[in-house]
Amino acid sequence: MAGIDIEGLATVYPNGVRAVDGLDLTVADGEFFALLGPSGCGKTTLLRTIAGLESATEGTVRIDSADVTRTEPGKRGVAMVFQDYALFPHMTVSENITYPLKVRRVAAATRASVAEKTGDELSLQGLLERRPAQLSGGQQQRVALARAIASEGKVLLLDEPLSNLDARLRLEARTFLKKLQKDLGITTVFVTHDQAEALALADRIAVMQSGKLRQLGSPREVFARPTNTFVANFIGSTPMNLLPGTVASHGVSVSGGSLPATTGSVPAGAEVTVGIRPEYLTLSTGDVSGPAIRGSVVVAENLGTQSLVTVDCSGTLIGVTVPEEDEPSPGTPVVLTASEQRVLLYDKESGELLA
Ligand code: ATP
């Protein structure tokens, strides 16, 4: 088992693209760590640079305290699972799983017992003699994972591990992967562009944009307290409301009313962007005391057990989630409130969290 330390890392492609652009991060021993961000932000390049499949232009990569920046991929102690699984079609499941051991000239009898044991761990019993084409997508993914685990790397690197599975299988595989990672306790870094997947699986998430780290934190932290409006926009199944506001003496004024807010050192009168998640707003149809925003319902969308209600507040649209049975009809006058610690203030220009 091993941690990963990345310092001042940059990976520049020959065409001049700085896909990873000055990055520092540490992945703890045994951690399940997600690299999350929109397409093209550099997450795959970062994963491949950790694996040694791309070479670092600047900075260092350490695995288990050893500097591996210039070490060839096969000698870094990493096992990587590719998005398309990269299984050998002419080999059986058993041969695929133990291929890395065959390369290392491990004896056939040992290989057979490793295939048996890893096959058990990955729920591949009864499939060891099949070829990849005779397996479902979920089973193929588990063979690729089994091969990575059987190679006994110190670190497991997964590139979009669930993206080739259909929606139902993906949920199943997600639960399986989380349990497997916890059971094995192997340091694991996985790439995803799916924020829901990162929130569900990871111990910590690194959110990237344009090759840079925008926030590093637990799923709870990046969801409840994004440190900039980029992360605020990217995380959450319903987007965070980002509203123009003006700091007042006890909170912040926005179109249609005001909200309580901890203003810290931000002076009264300052123009800010106010961030509030739809999940953290309360919608009432009666009167309320204290700071509130007034408006009228435009539309409500069913999200399953919740509804996302869009409220027109003097020309600004604000989203709020309510239990499905409390969904108000369009045109209903409503009042929105929030507790002070849920209201975030961002710099209007830079988008960085102020308070
Ligand atoms: P996606 O989710 O779409 O896979 P990503 O976040 O993993 O995206 P990368 O694949 O790491 O992003 O790409 C980062 C940047 O580097 C992009 O601008 C991409 O066009 C560029 N890039 C990727 N591979 C190469 C390459 N081999 N040569 C030149 N530029 C590349």
UniProtKB/TrEMBL annotation:
Domain ABC transporter: 4-235
Keyword terms, alphabetized: ATP-binding, Cell membrane, Membrane, Nucleotide-binding, Translocase, Transport
The species this protein was found in: Kribbella qitaiheensis
Gene3D superfamilies named in the record: 2.40.50.100, Nucleic acid-binding proteins (2.40.50.140), P-loop containing nucleotide triphosphate hydrolases (3.40.50.300)
A Gene Ontology molecular function term of the record: ABC-type transporter activity
InterPro entries attached to this UniProt entry: AAA+_ATPase (IPR003593), ABC_transporter-like_ATP-bd (IPR003439), ABC_transporter-like_CS (IPR017871), ABC_transpr_MalK/UgpC-like (IPR047641), Mo/tungstate-bd_C_term_dom (IPR008995), NA-bd_OB-fold (IPR012340), P-loop_NTPase (IPR027417), Transp-assoc_OB_typ2 (IPR013611)
Keyword Nucleotide-binding part of the UniProt annotation: yes
Gene Ontology terms: cellular component: ATP-binding cassette (ABC) transporter complex, substrate-binding subunit-containing
Protein name from the UniProt record: ABC transporter ATP-binding protein
